[in-house]
Amino acid sequence: GSTYVQEIFDNNTGLHNTTVYSTDNGATWTTATNLPATAIWADNIMYANGKYVYVSGSSGTSSGNTAYSSDGITWTAGTTITSNYWQSIDYGNGKFMCIAFSTTPNLAYSTNGTSWTTTNLGFSPNYAKIRYGNGVWLVMNNYGVLNYWRSTNDGASWSSTLTSPCYANTLYYANGLFIINDSSAGTTFVSPDGLT
Q1: Residues 35, 67: contact at Cβ < 8 Å?
Q2: Are the C-beta atoms of 106 and 81 separated by less than 8 Å?
Q3: How far apart are CA 119 and CA 87, in angstroms?
Q4: Are 54 and 35 in contact, with CB atoms under 8 Å apart?
Q5: Within its chain, how far is the Cα of 151 from the centroid?
Q6: What digits encode the pLDDT tens for the residues 118-150?
Q7: Each residue of 25-44: pLDDT tens digit?
Q8: Which of 75, 71, 101 is nearest to 86 (CA)?
Q9: Which residue among 10, 22, 132, 135 is the one 20 to 30 A from 32 at the CA level?
C-alpha cells in the first residue's frame, strides 16, 4: 500500500519540526523518529521517481539538512546544503529542485535526491513556490507583489513573465495546467505554459 508523509506544526515549540507518516490511508499516523532532530522539516517534501525527498527549511543551523527515503518511514541523511530559508520543492525532467528566499545561493538541485548542488536563481523570490510541468519550471513570488519566473532549460536561466499586486498563495500543476490561486481576490488563474 501507499505511505503518506506529512510535516506538522508543533504548538509547543512554534516550529515545523515533527514529521508523521501513515500506511493506512490516513486513518492513523506515526511520528518519524530517525530524521535529524535539529532540522526544521517544513513542507519541502517531494515524492518522485520512487523516493521521498526532504529539505529542511527555516534558517540558521537547522536549515540545509536533506534526507531521503524509499518508504517514507526510514530516512537517510543526504548532502547538507547551504543554510537558507528553503521553502518549496518539486521534481521534473529527472531533477529535484528546491528554492529559498533571502540570501544566496537560493536554488538547490539534485538528480538522485541524495546529493545536492546549490546555485543562484538570479533573482530573490519571497515566500515562493516552484512547480514543474510540460517542460517548464515556474517560480511564483507571493508576498505582496505577484511575480513569476520561468525556465525551459532546467533552471540554467530564468525570465520574468508577470508582475501584479496580489497575494497568491498556491501554485500547482495538474492536467496540463499551472494553477494559481489569488487569496486576496478569491481568483484562480490557469496557464498551460506559464506565459499565457
Answers
A1: yes
A2: no
A3: 15
A4: yes
A5: 16
A6: 999 888 777 788 999 999 999 887 665 677 889
A7: 888 888 776 676 556 666 67
A8: 101
A9: 132
The full length of the chain comes to 196
Contact 125, 139 (CB under 8 A): yes
Those residues with Cβ within 8 angstroms of residue 69's Cβ, 6 or more apart along the chain or in another chain: 5, 51, 52, 54, 75, 76
In the block, cell 543554510 appears at 83
Contacts of 179 (CB under 8 A, 6+ apart): 170, 171, 172, 173, 188, 189, 190
Whole-angstrom Cα distance, residue 71 to residue 5? 9
pTM of the model: 0.84
